[in-house]
Specification:
- The chain crosses the membrane at residues 33-51, 57-79, 100-120.
- It comes from Candidatus Daviesbacteria bacterium GW2011_GWC2_40_12.
- The protein is an all-alpha fold.
- The protein contains four helices and no strands.
- The radius of gyration is 19 Å and the shape is flat.
Length: 126
C-alpha cells in the first residue's frame, strides 16, 4: 500500500469523523448541551487558573462524556433504523446507552466540583 493511499484514507477517516460530530450536533440537543457545558467549564478553568493536572482531568472528563453521548447517538440511530415498533431489546439498548451517558455526566460533575471548589473559594476569598 502506497503512502499516498494511506494518507488519502487517513484524511477521509478524519473527514467522516468530523461529519459525524457535526451531524450529531445538528440533531441532538443533549450533545449541544454537553458542548456548551464544556465551553463554560473550560472558560472557568482558564479564568480560575487551574493547575495543569486539574486541566488535564477536566479535558479527559469532557472527552469521556462527549464520546459516550456520540456513542449513544449512534446506538439510537442504528436501533431506530431497524425498527419503528416498540421492541423490548431496542428499548433496552437505547436506555442502557443513555444510562451510560448519565453515569459519565454525574461522575464528571462530581469530580468537577471537587476540582473547582478550592479554586472558586480562593477566587472569592472565602
Amino acid at each position: 500500500m502506497s503512502f499516498q493511499k494511506i494518507s488519502t484514507q487517513r484524511v477521509l477517516s478524519f473527514k467522516y469523523a468530523f461529519t459525524g460530530i457535526i451531524s450529531a450536533l445538528k440533531e441532538e440537543p443533549n450533545l449541544k448541551f454537553h458542548f456548551l457545558t464544556a465551553f463554560l467549564v473550560l472558560t472557568a478553568a482558564i479564568v480560575l487558573g487551574i493547575s495543569k493536572w486539574d486541566f488535564m482531568i477536566i479535558i479527559f472528563l469532557i472527552g469521556f462524556v462527549v464520546s459516550l453521548e456520540l456513542t449513544n447517538t449512534a446506538i439510537e440511530a442504528v436501533v431506530d433504523s431497524f425498527t419503528n415498533d416498540a421492541h423490548p431489546g431496542a428499548k433496552l439498548a437505547k436506555d442502557v446507552s443513555a444510562g451510560a451517558v448519565l453515569v459519565a455526566a454525574v461522575t464528571s460533575a462530581i469530580l468537577g466540583t471537587v476540582i473547582f471548589l478550592p479554586y472558586i473559594q480562593t477566587f472569592l476569598n472565602l
